[in-house]
Each structure stands twice: as structure tokens, then as C-alpha cells.
Amino acid sequence: MRKVFSVALMAAMVCLVGMTRDAGATVTFSLVWIGTSGTGVTGTSSIFADSGDVLELQVRMTTDQTLGAHGVSLNFDTDLGNELNLLNPVGGKNWSGSTFGTTTMVSQYAEISPVGTTAESTGAMAGRINTFNSGVLSGPLFLPVGSYAIGTARFTYNGGSTDGNDVFVGLFNTGVDDVLNNLNTVIAPGTMVFGGAEVNFIPEPGTASLLGLGLIGLVLAGRRARRS
């Protein structure tokens, strides 16, 4: 009897763990700067740049549940500050990419609607790159649990103030963007996380020098206060 009860208890625990995992499953989209023609440090969602620098931004997706389909877009310069201009695409596509972090499938990612050769942000205008998704080249039909590089967008930096995120990823292309599970059902909004990326202007040498002198002054003042 005890053995039967133990087996039943273990089975119930397995089911409970499975249900808990499904309830907390998330699909995370993040933006990471992976390249610059300037001196900014890459590999994070925040970068320093000078006017005229060319910046490469990678869109990444991590999922802990199997997906049937997904489509998200990028918005940038939403504050109308014209800090970023989208570079003219090559071959009619603003970006393309392939999977990373998985050996079970190969996918090629591409933008659904090419914009030709016109940058989407000029003057005081907001920009957008519409829906991108994957086409399976080999492996299973559905997207397995793992991490993927959705694609890379290239911008020129026009300069601007440090004002927080300048690029956002999300469900911006109404009627097209969505994330579906392997039953082709839209997953709950609460299980999706969307990120952003920012560009901060590198201070002029004179400004940087004044900032350095100010910091030195604060250090000296602190030493004097401790001595007295």
C-alpha cells in the first residue's frame, strides 16, 4: 500500500512540476549591440557612440517552450529625436540571421516586408522595421526550446541626448506580429518579455576633462574632510 501511495505521490509531483513550468514559461526578446565603427563597447543593450558611427544591433529570442511561429518588429526614434537612421538594406532586406544556441534545427530569419532602399527615419520621424520570422531549413517543424539570433539591423548614429531606450522590440505590426505555441495558439501576453536598447553620446574631450577634474576635486575634498 505504501509503495502504491509513493508511486501516486511521485506521479502527482511530476504533473505539478510540469504544470508549474508551463504556467511560468516565457519567451524573451532582447536587443544587443554587436558591432560599431567607433570605440563603443559591444555585447550589451547599451552603447556609447559618436555622430556618424555605424552600429549593428542583434535581435535575440530565448524560449523555454516549443513555438509554432513568431513575429515581432522594431520601433526606433519614437521620441522624434532622430538619433538613429536605418542604413540602406542590402538585397532589399534590412536584416537576416540564423539560429544560435541549438543544434537540433537550422532556420533562416528574414524580414517579411522589405522597405527597398529608403531609410525609415529621417528628420523628426519615428522609424520601424516590420515583422521578421523564421523559415525552417532543416530539423523539426516547430522551434525547439533554446536561444536564437533573429537578425541584425544596421544604423548610423546622428547624436543626441542620453534619454533611455532608443530602440524597442515588440508586437508593433498589428494583425501580423504574434507568438504562437506548437498548437498554433497565441501564447498569453504575460509570458512574453520584450527588451530595448539605448545609444549614449560620447562626451566631447573638453566635457570629459571637466568631468574628470570635478571627480578629482571631490576626492581631494573627501580626504581633507577625513583629516579634519
Q: Short summary of the structure?
A:
Helices cover 20% and strands 38% of the residues.
Spell the H/E element sequence: HEEEEEEEEEEEEEH
Hey, roughly how much beta strand do the residues contain? 35-45%
Radius of gyration: 23 Å
CATH first level: which class?
Mainly Beta
How would you describe this structure to a colleague?
With 228 residues, this protein is of the alpha+beta class. The chain has a single domain, classed as Immunoglobulin-like (Sandwich). It contains 2 helices and 13 strands. Strands 2, 4, 6, 7, 8, 10, 11 and 13 form an 8-stranded mixed β-sheet that branches. A 5-stranded mixed β-sheet has the order 5-9-3-1-12, with no helix packed on it. Mean pLDDT is 73; it is low at 1-23, 114-118 and 206-212.
Which features does this protein show?
five-stranded mixed sheet; Immunoglobulin-like; eight-stranded mixed sheet; single chain; alpha+beta
Question: What is the secondary structure topology, with strand pairs?
Answer:
Blueprint: H1 2-23, E1 27-36, E2 46-49, E3 54-63, E4 67-76, E5 84-86, E6 96-98, E7 106-111, E8 127-138, E9 146-157, E10 167-170, E11 178-181, E12 192-194, E13 196-201, H2 205-227
Parallel strand pairs: 1-12, 2-13
Antiparallel strand pairs: 1-3, 3-9, 4-8, 4-10, 4-11, 5-9, 6-7, 7-8, 10-13
